[in-house]
């Protein structure tokens, strides 16, 4: 079953759905969310487009804030899955870019709107590069990478996994 089957076409303005790729992400089985979430240059009908995707299950809407101060522009993102998957499609020409540039993590922010009317703005965690090096992956595969973590983690065992006061949720990001 693809999650896009539940979304009427009129609710997907300018959004191009690649349903099967997102099913593993939405069900928390995706091993590399960086290749789906965050900024990605794509080509559609010969035009370069910046697709920025974000997953926030508790959000009602998402807008993308590009730039700062007087140069700040806000773009609406389409909710392409009822599980909280959003996608903003920005033509390179609208951003005054060619479509080959790297997107810096500080180029844009995500502004989430929630059912209770609250808004939350933050940088996109998936705009930053992954921080594990090849050596980290080697040590992790060997089973020795997190030995230091284990030595102090037992002292934090009573810390809550999620807290209502700061909207932390393991569904949003594994480290949140």
Please describe what this structure looks like.
This protein has about 180 residues and is an alpha+beta fold. It has two domains: about 5-130, Immunoglobulins (Immunoglobulin-like), CATH 2.60.40; about 130-175, no CATH class. It has three helices and eight strands; from the N terminus they run αββββββββαα. It has helices spanning about 20-25, 135-140, 145-155, and strands at about 40-45, 45-55, 60-65, 75, 80, 85-90, 110-115, 120. It has a four-stranded antiparallel sheet with strand order 1-2-6-5, with no helix packed on it. It has a four-stranded antiparallel sheet with strand order 4-3-7-8, with no helix packed on it. β7 (about 110-115) and β8 (about 120) form a beta hairpin. The longest helix has 9 residues, at about 135-140. It is globular and about 50 Å long. Residues about 1-10 and about 10-20 have low confidence and may be disordered.
In brief, what are we looking at here?
The chain has 176 residues and is α+β, with helices and mostly antiparallel strands.
Which descriptors apply to this entry?
8 strands, 27% strand, alpha+beta, single chain, 3 helices, Immunoglobulin-like, 4-stranded antiparallel β-sheet, 176 residues, globular, disordered N terminus, 2 domains
- The total beta strand count reads 8
Q: Fraction of residues in helices?
A: 10-25%
Measured distance between first and last alpha carbons: 29 Å
Instruction: Please mark out the parts with pLDDT under 50 across 5 or more consecutive residues, or reply none.
Output: 1-9, 11-18
> What is the molecular shape?
globular
CATH topology of the largest domain: Immunoglobulin-like
Structural class: alpha+beta
């Amino acid at each position: 079953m693809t999650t896009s089957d539940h979304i009427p076409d009129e609710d997907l303005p300018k959004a191009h759905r690649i349903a099967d790729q997102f099913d593993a992400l939405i069900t928390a089985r995706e091993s590399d969310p960086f290749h789906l979430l965050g900024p990605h240059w794509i080509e559609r009908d010969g035009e370069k487009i910046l697709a920025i995707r974000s997953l926030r299950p508790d959000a009602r809407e998402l807008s993308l804030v590009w730039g700062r101060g007087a140069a700040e522009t806000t773009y609406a993102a389409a909710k392409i899955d009822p599980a909280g998957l959003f996608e903003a499609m920005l033509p390179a020409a609208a951003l005054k870019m060619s479509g080959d540039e790297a997107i810096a993590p500080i180029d844009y922010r995500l502004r989430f709107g929630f059912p209770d009317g609250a808004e939350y703005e933050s940088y996109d965690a998936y705009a930053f590069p992954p921080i594990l090096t090849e050596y980290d992956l080697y040590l992790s595969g060997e089973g020795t990478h997190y030995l230091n973590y284990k030595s102090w983690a037992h002292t934090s065992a009573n810390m809550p996994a999620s807290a209502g006061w700061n909207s932390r949720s393991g569904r949003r990001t594994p480290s949140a």
